[in-house]
Amino acid sequence: MTLITAFILGIVQGVTEFLPVSSSGHLVIAQHLLGWKSPAVFFDVSLHVGTFLAVLAVFHKDIRDLIEGGIRLILQRPFRSSKAGKLDNQERIFLLVLVGTLPTVVAGLFARHALENAFASVAAVSVNFLITGTFLWLTRYAKPLVRKPPRLTRGKHALWIGLSQALALAPGISRSGATISAGLFLGLERDWAGRYSFLLFVPAVIGALILEGSHIRIQNVELAPTILGILTATIVGYIALRILLKVVRKGNFFVFAPYCWLLGALGLIWTLLFKG
Predict the structure, then answer these.
(1) pLDDT 10s digits, 215-224
(2) Any residues with CB less than 8 A from the CB of 247 and at least 6 apart, and which?
(3) Hey, where are the domains in the chain?
(4) What predicted TM-score, i.e. pTM, was given to this entire model?
């Protein structure tokens, strides 16, 4: 792999992983229309490590709270007296992330390959892009609550958002688009909807890295392209994530809808002309 290719793939990963435009959907479209090949498993995992580092950089305080809440809830609270009191915000956030992660765990273990295979055609992915665009557009009509978020968020909210994340295993359905849209539809405050979406990203990507990593066969690894790909995905992902959060806070999440609609329409037109 050349350094230019690694650089381009790092940019694509950094942008599409966080902006609500489906990185997996772009890969399917690029493979069919442009003749791109999937990168080697090791390089693909490396790019995901890069975007994971971007999330750590942006949400390090939230992730620290998540870890501390989990430690207290699992290792300390069971040994306290029955009068330990209500859950604090850190413990509540940990539980919300745990509940929201369950649907993705189940889907990842039992339906991941079925979803990926069922929607691997350009036509199916194009329809999913149209669906993603529609959900993004409808967020302009959502009226989130303007209150302290974690205290108001309930387990059923986390479960619905988690189900949205599980559906995003299908190429063309954006993970960030589905989860943030679901949060906004459920009335979550905009900033919290964005933060919660990417707190869910943490266990999801760790699980994916473990699953994909188990298939890695490290042979003839090209060190320079791999390092460049990780650095590019991290830097571009950090910028894309900052932009996304700013757009969500301003209530302009729907601005990504036309791009998804355009890509979906072009994919369907290509299918009709050349695959019909």
Answers:
(1) 666 656 678 8
(2) 253, 255, 256
(3) 3-77+96-274
(4) 0.87
